[in-house]
Amino acid sequence: MQPRSLRDPERLLFELSRPGRRGVALPPLDVPAPDRAALDPRYTRDEVEGFPELSETEVVRHYTRLSRLNYAIDLGLYPLGSCTMKYNPKIHEKVARLPGFAGAHPQLPAGAAQGCLRLMHDLERALCSICGMDRFTLQPAAGAHGELAGIMMVRAYHRERGNPRQVVLIPDSAHGTNPASAHIAGYRVEQLPSNERGCVDLGALRRRMSEDIALLMLTNPNTLGVFEGEIQEIASVIHARGGLLYMDGANLNAFVGRARPGDMGVDLHHLNLHKTFSTPHGGGGPGAGPVGVMRSLEPYLPVPTVEKEGEVYVLRHERPKSIGKVRSFFGNFGMFVRAYAYILALGPDGLRRMSETAVLNANYLRRKLESTYHLPYDAPSLHEVVFSDRHLEDTGVHTLDIAKRLMDYGFHPPTIYFPLIVKGAMMIEPTESESREELDAFILAMRRIAEEAREDPDLVRTAPHTTPVRRLDEVGAARNPVIRWTSPQKPR
Amino acid sequence: MGDGHRYIPASDADRDAMLREIGVARIDDLFASIPAPLRLKGPLSLSPAMSEQELWAEMSRRARDDRQPDPGAQFLGGGAYRHYSPAVVDHLVSRTEFYSSYTPYQPEVSQGTLQAIFEYQTLICQLTELEISNASLYDGASALAEAVLMAERTTHGGRVVVSDRVHPEYLEVCRTYLANLDLPITTFGHRDDGSSDPEAARRALREGKASAVVVQQPNFFGCLEEIEAFAAAAREAKAQLIVAVAEPISLGLLKGPGRQGADVVVGEGHSFGVPLSYGGPYLGFIAARQSFLRNMPGRIVGETRDVDGRRGYVLTLSTREQHIRREKATSNICTNEGLCALMASIFLAVVGKNGLRDLAAHNHAKSAYARNRIAAAKGCSLPYTAPTFNEFTVRLPVPADKAVRTLLDRGMVPGIPLSRYFPGMDRDLLVCVTETNPRAEIDRLADELGRLD
Amino acid sequence: MSKGNGIYPEDLKYTKEHEWLAVNGGVGTVGITHYAQSELGDIVYVELPAAGSPVVAGEEFGTVESVKAVSEIFAPVSGEVLGVNTALATSPETINKDPYGDGWLLKLKLADSKELDALMTAAEYRKYIEEEAN
């Protein structure tokens, strides 16, 4: 046995496991135990082979130690572009755990779940106000799920009018979920080029628009953080030929309280509760991706919807033209509670201050970094700004290295190599949660790394140096995938 | 508003200083790129901001509006199951390093999340007795849809054959996903004992090519299926067998479907410590044979080493995913149910090998006791004779939805009236019993059901 | 650094999708070029058709995968697959190290030698990738 050190890697549950250890004790069984032979042995197993055996204390130590290997938003800036890593308010966590919410079974008769139904109803109303849409479905579990549900509604809309159409147009700057979702909904995807401002090329759209295009999906502000100023003209071009306009609302944090998608000619859009509306990212979810629609798409909403009849809230399943369901029950209700609490906590003034400060912070970073890093598009930024590594080309240091070195400075890197239209992109979204001091510290780190790239490029290219692990062999992981632990006695 | 909001640090003084640095006179100037006709003239019509104290009072009031019966007097299943979650689960996922972190794209600062997912993937493989798993999907129903899409991608059968005993919401989600892809669903029926009929599956498979056969274990009506028989039928037809598991606590007692011949197992994992929370967030899981590796949807974590030789974990095989493969991706999923997967891992770690076996045994025992007591209750009968786990169907002397209304007034929810899903099954009630139902409540349930007519 | 400085053997033919073709009698050997493997980065996996499968000029017949990208491979000419390089299943990195030698992908029986006229020479290919890089 080796003496312990502070930097020891954490072993796996299965490596810590010891036979006979127990983490829970159940109350004594208060009914007669059925005869074991009563259930035919062809159905049953003796135990789950390989499952860990640990005491409660060992489990707590294991996960506590694991947690300390993570960076998190409560530790500092997390400037991932289009992710809106904002502060997750703690009272919302308390509220979501109220027994009336957290303990509510989804199969309860509606009469015993009025608090839950009322919250869903009120959240939908609030989102309609904020976004200028006629209705929202809360069912999709994430943004991409919302995109899929939305495109299915579009297809149902067109099918009812005699022709589902074949093509969805997507700008070359779009997030990968856009074309992936369109494909699952049965559409062919065609890319629309961006103009020199990084926005949808209106001329290219005019030339391409025809009756075989079902939908244009655009992100507003786009993935460069630039507002699609011609969105109303874009909507006209599409509507004139019977198509619909979808807005990817991942970047809504940029203009809540200042503008509304419903006024822009948008027919439907999703938003991300885990972005704009502060619900925690959880290391990869859960999120929620509600979809707002205008009246013309209401018939196709997923079921059930929540309706108010007099003073009572009900779940309505009858919607003959509905696309059906995209998941069981009603959606990620726990995230609805948190998002609704956020809207109540901010109010109209707070929501406006939120988008103002998000845009202010991004522009502050842009002004302070634009002489150090290359700005590929000089169109005005709203809530996020995209730089590239072009100024450091001659040093041999690339965007990847800058990102890795930032971790040594105590920051999570921004999004890298996206959007695809910028080579070596660094997409930076600070959000309104950051103080000026935090932004200044980030600016200083970015400037120092640019200096290091010139003075000591190897230091940057071999970063990070001070994190729990250093650069990992991703090639090896993909060539010889090992995606589960296997007992040493068993052959792999 | 001179001060900042408690969630938004910048005070008016901070804002003015930063505006000067940017070289702009007012905040409005930063929004000049929004065309004038689109700019809102007035504030949003929402209620004014609440202090934390007011927010807590408001939300507490709303949560009390439910007037739910005592959890011990609720006998609800049907795709969502009430179990006791040990305190350590919520305690550990409340650590900010877990719940406020992002998807682990930068592995050097995300080893906590990545190692936990690697452990989760292993636990799912062990439970299902299959070789590979992923980092989570949205829920059991959408996981089934993803498995069907994966079957079609790999087998190109052009059709899916599904038991009519699968959860109706799972079937509806599959229909929704498949509606636009020219991929029809054929259903096959069940036997008198309540389990799906392997002969009916064979007949359905003989009608033409199919990518997959789907059954649920235990099925929606609570009955256990003969997985090996469906595996044989699928193999003969060169189709895959997909088994859906809505209540995975059953896997503490029942064989892993992988051992019984399933090619893919999907299911709903929220029974492992995730709150009921009126239907979500939940946890979809998927496990499959090794050969499916490059076709799996969703994120996958793999083991590797860093430049110093330390063992570490990374997201791997990312070329399957939407951010690289775009329209050719194996799925569009991005954000999944990461924190719920972590809850499930912690639950399974602390419950452990022996605890899960005991928990499954308790569920089975209490449910068997309830089943026998209700069968003996006046006017009640059991329409199905197949073995069950913790759910079973009861036939009442009166319409089941009426019985539910009557008993709700007496502080009890006896089960789910099946007419909610199947018009015509008016007197059938789906009853679920878990370790959270004390014997006294089970006895009261049987007594109440016996007094119905 | 000009992309044209990579190695492009004179005796091979080239496609716009960055495959090379060597012809010996009626048998063609196909691989990907130095430029292609350099753009992809470390190759982790290759998907190839079974022996006996037909391939059609210009159509996709497989994929080459790195950590960050997947590239479809397109048939330079039509024909029938005679055999694939099975060593790549365990050592896909051979394509990076030796794209024209041990990193060959498959051999096929040519269906129509007239299709060779549509392919590029080494000089034409060098010029093509110079233009594409700019």
Description:
The complex is a heterotrimer of chains A (492), B (453) and C (134). Chain A is α/β, with parallel strands linked by helices and 492 residues long. Helices cover 34% and strands 10% of the residues of chain A. Chain A is globular, with a radius of gyration of 26 Å. With 453 residues, chain B is an alpha/beta fold. With 134 residues, chain C is α+β, with helices and mostly antiparallel strands. In chain C, 17% of the residues lie in helices and 33% in strands. Chain C has helices at residues 34-40, 94-97, 122-133, and strands spanning 13-14, 19-24, 27-32, 43-47, 54-55, 60-66, 70-74, 79-84, 106-110. In chain C, a hairpin with a 4-residue loop joins β1 (13-14) and β2. Chain C is globular. The model of chain C has no long low-confidence stretch (mean pLDDT 91). Chains in contact: A-B, A-C, B-C. The interface between A and B is large, with 201 and 205 residues.
CATH architectural name of the largest domain in chain A: 3-Layer(aba) Sandwich
Structural class of chain A: alpha/beta
Shape of chain A: globular
Q: How many beta-strand segments of chain A? A: 12
Count of alpha/pi helices of chain A: 14
Proportion of residues in helical segments of chain A: 25-40%
The gist of it:
The complex is a heterotrimer of chains A (492), B (453) and C (134). Chain A is an alpha/beta fold and 492 residues long.
